[in-house]
Design goal:
It is a single chain. The radius of gyration is 29 Å and the shape is elongated. By secondary structure, it is an all-alpha fold. It starts with a helix and ends in a 53-residue tail after the last helix.
Length: 86
Amino acid sequence: MVCVACLIPLFLVPIVNLLPVLFHILMAKVYRMCGKEYQKPESAPPACPFKPSATKPNNSVSGEEPSPGAPHPVPKAVGVDDSKQD
């Protein structure tokens, strides 16, 4: 025999999964009463936790421009002399 408290999660999971759908239905009705059209926002597709995200390998060849995320080297001023003289 199973206790009633152990069965509660079985009924809560489907209800919690339906909350976003119910929210969009409710928002559509509210917008319709205001005379506007509700457009459901686009969501990102779920990422698989088991596969790494598809990224390009960093195969930089000399002569290529650095990738956008790489820091740019700071050019040295031409007329500046960094040596100290006593």
